[in-house]
């Protein structure tokens, strides 16, 4: 039997369950506004399960705000969530999108922390940003200053935050220290390069060999990369020449895995740490015994969503990080990743492009 869809959004996610509806004060569910949203009711290929639908929004409760969504990136994690291949899966029916920028257009009577017109981004994954409007609890939001670019604000909550945390939470780095990373031309990799440059760190950046390699090298060097090399160079004498000019890295950042990630281990300094935050190669990370035994390398993992959840009760650290990153954007030391701006009603273009090999992030503009 086909399930009837009740298009009512809820406080901490896209749709409101009966239990959650009972928690709202009397009259709070009076429907006041509507929005368009990209909804899916089952997991599968985005082309089969994602549809744009009109939804009604509840009236704004005492501790809630109403947002006009301005822009929302389409990230690989968003597609994985639609497919059912992500550790966090919202209940059906669900709205796609974990990252995005909204403008406050209405506030509840008990709200003093946000004002009309301010920009905000969601704290947690599963918010459902692929829609034109939302009503949510004020605690689900973090303020973003309006004096940075719209694309910068819309993309600040995941990749730059991931880069920032990895550069600060695992190794105490000093100006002049070096780090090494693979996947350097990814959005996280580009943020790592720029934040490292602002910290006075030297970066060794590994990319795949490709026909346009020289263009990629120039782009990364323009962001502040000190060295850009291919995976093949990790196995050659080029590394010896690099280490005549910079110290061996105390920190390695791995988003590829497989042999590529394993090669990073051999170039880390004694006592260094390798942080894995992705596995694009879909192959296990080989662990040379000598790196663990004789160099005492520490292996760690990082997931930005879990860090946010661990710090949810006191959002001071998250707000402080967003403020610092916004300051770097304001000063020109951190830029938004290259983006393709896609009108919301042509969303299929953005979803399909994210499935394919590309260098630019696609952002839905509402």
TrEMBL record:
Quick check: keyword Transit peptide in the entry?
Answer: yes
Please give the superkingdom of this protein's source: Eukaryota
Matching entries from SMART domains are given as: PKS_ER
Subcellular location field: Mitochondrion
Signal sequence interval, chain numbering:
none
- Grouped into one coarse class, the protein's main location is mitochondrion
**Residue ranges annotated for the Enoyl reductase (ER) domain, each copy included:** 44-365
From its record, what is one biological process in GO terms?
Answer: fatty acid biosynthetic process
Which GO molecular-function terms appear in the entry? enoyl-[acyl-carrier-protein] reductase (NADPH) activity
Enzyme Commission number(s): 1.3.1.104
Q: Does the keyword Acetylation apply?
A: no
An annotated GO cellular component of this protein is: mitochondrion
First-level EC class: oxidoreductase
User: Which UniProt key words apply to this protein?
Assistant: Fatty acid biosynthesis, Fatty acid metabolism, Lipid biosynthesis, Lipid metabolism, Mitochondrion, NADP, Oxidoreductase, Transit peptide
Which family does the UniProt entry place this protein in? Belongs to the zinc-containing alcohol dehydrogenase family. Quinone oxidoreductase subfamily.
Q: What is this protein called?
A: Enoyl-[acyl-carrier-protein] reductase, mitochondrial
The organism's lineage is:
Eukaryota, Metazoa, Chordata, Craniata, Vertebrata
């Amino acid at each position: 039997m086909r399930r009837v869809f009740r298009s009512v959004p809820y406080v901490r996610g896209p749709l409101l369950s009966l239990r959650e509806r009972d928690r709202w004060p009397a009259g709070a569910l009076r429907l006041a506004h509507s929005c368009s949203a990209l909804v899916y009711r089952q997991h599968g290929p985005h082309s089969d399960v994602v549809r744009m639908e009109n939804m009604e929004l509840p009236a704004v409760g005492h501790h809630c705000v109403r947002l006009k969504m301005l822009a929302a990136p389409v990230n690989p994690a968003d597609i994985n969530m639609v497919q059912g291949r992500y550790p966090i899966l919202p209940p059906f029916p669900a709205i796609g999108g974990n990252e995005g920028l909204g403008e406050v257009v209405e506030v509840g009577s008990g709200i003093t922390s946000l004002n009309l017109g301010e920009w905000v981004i969601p704290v947690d994954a599963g918010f459902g940003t692929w829609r034109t409007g939302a009503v949510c609890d004020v605690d689900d939001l973090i303020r973003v200053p309006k004096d940075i670019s719209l694309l910068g604000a819309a993309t600040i909550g995941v990749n730059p935050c991931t880069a920032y945390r990895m550069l600060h939470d695992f190794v105490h780095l000093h100006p002049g220290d070096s780090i090494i990373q693979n996947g350097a031309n990814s959005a996280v990799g580009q943020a790592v390069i720029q934040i490292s440059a602002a910290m006075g760190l030297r970066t060794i950046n590994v990319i795949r060999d490709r026909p346009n390699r020289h263009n990629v090298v120039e782009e990364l060097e323009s962001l502040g990369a000190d060295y850009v090399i291919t995976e093949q160079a990790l196995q050659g004498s080029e590394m010896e020449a690099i280490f005549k000019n910079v110290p061996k890295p105390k920190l390695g950042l791995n988003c590829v895995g497989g042999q590529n990630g394993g090669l990073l281990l051999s170039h880390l300094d004694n006592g260094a740490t390798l942080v894995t935050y992705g596995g694009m190669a879909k192959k296990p990370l080989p662990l040379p015994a000598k790196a663990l035994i004789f160099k005492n390398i520490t292996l760690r993992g990082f997931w930005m969503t879990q860090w946010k959840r661990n710090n949810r009760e006191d959002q001071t650290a998250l707000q402080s990080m967003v403020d610092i990153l916004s300051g770097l954007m304001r000063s020109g030391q951190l830029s938004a990743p290259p983006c393709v701006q896609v009108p919301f009603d042509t969303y299929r273009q953005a979803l399909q492009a994210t499935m394919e090999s590309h260098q630019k992030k696609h952002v839905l503009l509402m």
